[in-house]
Amino acid sequence: MERYYIQFVSLGPGDPDLITLAAYKALQKCDLIYYPTTVSPSGKTVSKAEEIMLANGIDTTKFRPYSLPMSMDRTKALAVYEEVASRCKAHYDEGLSVAVAAEGDAGFYSSTHYISDVLLREGCPFVFIAGVPAFIAAGAVAGQSITRQDEELQIIPGNATPEKLCEAMAQGRTVLIMKLSRCESVVKEFLSKENVAAIYFEYVGTDKEFISSCIEEDILPRRFPYFSMLRLKPKQQ
User: Are strands 126-129 and 32-39 parallel, antiparallel or unpaired?
Assistant: First the structure.
């Protein structure tokens, strides 16, 4: 059986206890771990991925952080991903085992796909290790099923429109809107006009976690951060 040296390791939504056993073992056994960092408005370098790994006792000598510029213009970020992919391939050619860590699930709206796309183009083998995505953790924290039985689930990644939301509610679908900061005004206008059941989630699995189903009191007045999501259902469900 062919051995894969590059693994995209899913870390879960933020709670260090939600990392899978497979992910933990991969991080323990690999030679190097690449993971993203960002610079906060105060100038501090932060990384939720690093926090999760530190909480699980992963050897810091393996750490290879890469800094991602936070901007709607993805040009600089894409250059960083290209560089990380190039380094991973070089390590692979040297016979080293490399992990690329990703919050949530590495195969679900994860920006690490930019790295895997480059590796695929270069013919460099890799595997994904599944993790707990934020919306699954959100349902658990809220003590509710995200969907039930024959309900259809529609996931909208920050590009919600009034037409999409109205159609989904008319069809009786459950809607999960992620990356709410990208469509904040649309979502708030919809919530203020339509009679729907909503649960808002923010920073699930972290010490800044916030959950509410109170539209008027909590959701509408709140500024949506990037790491937020909203579950919508027709009121009768």
Answer: unpaired
Compute the distance between CA of residue 22 and CA of residue 2 in angstroms, rounded to an integer.
18
Per CATH, 6-129 and 134-234 having the same topology is answered no
Query: Mean pLDDT lowest for which of 1-15, 39-53, 198-212?
Result: 1-15
Task: Locate 179 and state its tokens.
Answer: 């990356």
> Tokens in use for 175?
């809607």
The residue extents of the domains of the chain are 6-129, 134-234
User: Do 119 and 83 meet the contact criterion of CB atoms below 8 Å apart?
Assistant: no
Residues 134-178: pLDDT tens digits?
999 999 998 988 888 888 999 999 999 999 999 999 999 999 999
CATH number of 6-129: 3.40.1010.10
Helix (H, G, I), strand (E, B) or coil at 188: helix
Instruction: Please state whether the predicted TM-score (pTM) of the whole model is above 0.90.
Output: no
**Does pLDDT of 56 surpass 80?**
yes
| CATH of the domain spanning 134-234, picked from 3.30.950.10, 3.30.565.10, 3.30.160.270, 3.40.50.970 | 3.30.950.10
Q: Cβ(148)–Cβ(27) under 8 Å?
A: no
